[in-house]
Design a protein that fits this description.
By secondary structure, the chain is mainly alpha-helical. It has one domain. Helices cover 68% and strands 0% of the residues. It contains five helices and no strands. Helix 2 runs antiparallel to helix 4 and helix 4 runs antiparallel to helix 5. The protein starts with a helix and ends in a 7-residue tail after the last helix.
Amino acid sequence: MKWLVLVVCLAGACKKQAEPPAQEPPAPAMPASEVKRSQDACKSYVEKLCACAATVAAMKEPCARERALADAIEVDLSVAANPESSRRDALQAQGSVRAIVKRCIEETARLPAAGCP
């Protein structure tokens, strides 16, 4: 019995200590020029859309809905810049900003087909 206790104690002492997980480097910040272009692109889209809504009734609902794009960009930028955000979350937030901007640019290009000047 003493040998069994000794073997169990030794086995527990010989276990390798778990290494702490490696710290991931923080996500690189979005360049200020990209942030500015992002904000400007969506602001321009919403302005054009809402100006069109004054003459094209079908654009009134999209105008009201798309006003939230600027807020969505700001939320994503704040998540990406927050030092407490994980690298994964920061990169996803940056990707979300880029997806929103892509949509703003594509929708701006579609405005003339909807009857907007």
